[in-house]
Design brief:
Elements lengths: L2 H9 L3 H23 L2 H18 L11 H24 L30 H9 L3 H12 L4 H8 L3 H28 L1
Amino acid sequence: MREQSLLCKVVKKDPEALKKLYDDYAPKLFSLCMRYMGNRADAEDVLHDGFIKILENLPGFRMGPACNLEGWMKKIMVNTALNNLRQRAKEEKLISFDKAEGKMDVHDEEFSEEDAFPVIPEKEVILEMIGNLPAGYRTVFNLYVFEEYSHREIAVMLGCSEGTSKSQLSKARVMLRHSLTSVFEKEKRY
């Protein structure tokens, strides 16, 4: 089914088209949700809420050279995840963009050739490491690395300063580097 034809059928609420749209895009979008939320239950909630928003806004979507369906859907999922994190922060005070969140003392470090890792762990291990980052670090890391937003754009989205965005990214990278080092140290012992 061509994308445009599929979208027309989805807008008309054709059950087969709805299922195909979900089956085609849910796995990629779920991975994106996992990166932001850090656990399966919250990621599933965001995926569900995001798909509802996608279906509500689909009649206004216009495909073109500058706008593709998958990119548009990812943007909705990212915004849904960010809204969810903001809501949780209000309710539970989970995200603190200006504090180190007590996980570990991290300092901005330069990456050198000596820090290179001999083998890259499986994708699932890396995603788990990202999921284990404090919420603020994880959010900035995802926006910068995966969604390719600038620090200025991230600052506007999250209501923090550019410096805070840069600091959160740096601390996330340091924590990930420490996690990767731990994995390699364990592998050396075996």
